[in-house]
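Before any further analysis, backbone shapes were mapped to integers, which produced the following:

***
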Amino acid sequence: MDEKSIKYQQQALNPFLFKLGMLRRLPSVAFWGIRICVLNAERCEVTIPFTWRTQNPFGSIYFGALAGAAELSTGALCQMMIKGMGDYAMLVVGFKAQFVKKATTTITFSCDDGIALAAVLGTIKNSGETASFEMTAIGKNAFGDIIGSAHILWSFKKR
């Protein structure tokens, strides 16, 4: 990782700077209390607490909040990777999620696609070229049980 990626990583892992940044760009993430716990070249882990701010009327975490945490676990990895690679545009072009268990504790979404993402981004060399990559985020509860998974299709374009 280069200097810009390391700086992004340090800011994302600092709770104060992360919350400040989310208040500016993604206020719902700040409201829900989502945090990045692990962010490196290989993986990203994001937690979302089970609190009144994330709870739905059925006594579990609202699916929209879970989807936001899942997306952030992939998006933070993408952001960190492209920081040192030049000027890129990135956009979610597909999202598919499956929830298999009620989310009634803090949920951790993890994405382990960093190495494959770096390879895909490395294929874009010239301005105007695009690439797509589907990333997977697995959500687990405090007991280690899988509560769901999300498949997020990102599109990248070198400017």
In short: The chain has a mean pLDDT of 94. The chain has one domain: 3-86+103-118+135-147. The two ends are 21 Å apart (CA to CA).
